[in-house]
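Morning!

This is the sequence you dropped in the shared folder:
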Amino acid sequence: MAALVTSIVVSILMSVAIFVYAGRRPVGTPVTWGEAMVGSVWVFFLAFLAYGVVPHQWLTLAENEWSFRADRILYGPGNIVQPISQGGWFPFDITYRAISDTVAVIIYVIALGLQIWMWARWQNRGQRAEAQAKAALSQTSSFGRPLIKQG
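The structure's back. Tokens below.
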């Protein structure tokens, strides 16, 4: 449990650090060789955590500590999903292994969605600043004069 929580916390902190850096870095500044190397290692390690370590730690926790095995069948509260093979009405067996694998797939989908969102936000960081500056320039007072002196 500690390994799973630690890997999730490290992934979140590394992601937050990207946004902090994106807010401080001026748009259009040339990237140095050192910055490119640090950035590539940072993103590779974050992807390694999100797609490798976090799902592995989840599967390890579910299988070893919580006994989510293929021979355990989910019956649900009050035997709601008791399968036909066990005398119930539900048409198929739901094993605990299937539940843990489904959670792992959900972890992958969330990581992919967040990765796409983070890349889009990084790529569009200059456009938001320009839009805010244009909006500030277009504001006028109640007398019709601009609120900000224009160049």
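Headline: The mean pLDDT is 87.

More detail when I'm at my desk.
O.
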